[in-house]
Amino acid sequence: MRHFAKLCTAAVAVAATLTGATTAVAAGGTADQRVDGVIVVAGNTCTWTNARTSAVPPAALTVDRTTVNKPGGNLVCDGGISASLNNNPAFTFDDGAATARTDLIDITGQQSFVSCRYKATNLVWDRDGTGRKYVNRAFTATKTSGSFLCPGSVTTPAGGASMLFH
Known about the structure:
By secondary structure, the protein is mainly beta. The chain is built from 1 helix and 12 strands, in the order αββββββββββββ. Strands 1, 2, 3, 4, 5, 6, 7, 8, 9, 10, 11 and 12 form a 12-stranded antiparallel sheet that branches. The longest helix has 19 residues, at 2-20. The radius of gyration is 14 Å and the shape is globular.
């Protein structure tokens, strides 16, 4: 179950990154208000691609969870776990400080018959380079519901998740 909790936290970080990343225009291209996310926890990886955002950074934006979660999105995790984003995370950007902030990430993870729901608030992301890739600072997500087998909280270390806005 410890592994499951870490994976749930990773999923939370992925969602957060997805929500708050800004679309960077690579090599002179144009922004398409999409975001890709990756998170690795305890050797397991969760990913998604082309989720929709409501704006292009540095404007404040939200990530559309229906384009992250299946069937409209393509969020997948290895290691026998599934995850689902329960909110549309809101992101704000500070280009001067090269950071992004996410207000709330609410995610549910499931493995076999065990389901755990976690929330993390006030997440901070650091921009990686000059593009619109953001990497998380360490954060802790708190269990809000689920099996007694779920840990009360899970921590995602700094660099455990990234978002790329395009």
